[in-house]
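Issue: ligand-bound run for uracil - logging full I/O for the record.

Environment: standard queue, default settings, no custom constraints.

Inputs:
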Amino acid sequence: MSLAKLREEACTCHNCDLYKDATQTVFGEGPASARIMMVGETPGDQEDRKGAPFVGPAGRLLDRAMGEAGIDRSAVYLTNAVKHFKFTERGKRRIHKTPSRTEVVACQPWLLGELGEVKPELVVCLGAVAAKALLGPSFRVTQHRGEVFDLPDSAAKVTATVHPSAVLRSDDREKAYKGFVDDLAAAYAIL
Ligand code: URA
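Outputs:
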């Protein structure tokens, strides 16, 4: 199935209940010929409103880090393990919630479809949810960050780093950011 067809079908996905409260499906974006695919967790508040991945604060940090690591965002296919925003309302704010394993599994056909179409040489998992989605629920980013694996059922290599939101939340943001840039640069060097 082409990326366009996958996107169209994902727009009416009812594989889990997250579509009920989200504004829209946020499908992946980037060239179908991308050599690198980066996989995040779920769209955030701004991504849910705009319908595009990584366009909020985490996306801005990711853009800056990619730039410093020598990676051109426009050459990367960016997507998420889960395509609908999961949140809880606190007053007027919508607070991100981590998707459950069931929701990740329900969304897996879209991620696997994207992998099958883009056929990247390298997949970078941004955070634990993406890493567990592709490498299994027992994968621990804290233990295996930066290691390179063969992606099951694919010719791609896969590696995992922290999520850009974790950098934003870090007590030592400068150190966390540097570690994140270093991970992206090391991942890029695999190509
Ligand atoms: N966080 C993610 O994991 N993905 C996005 O698209 C935005 C924030």
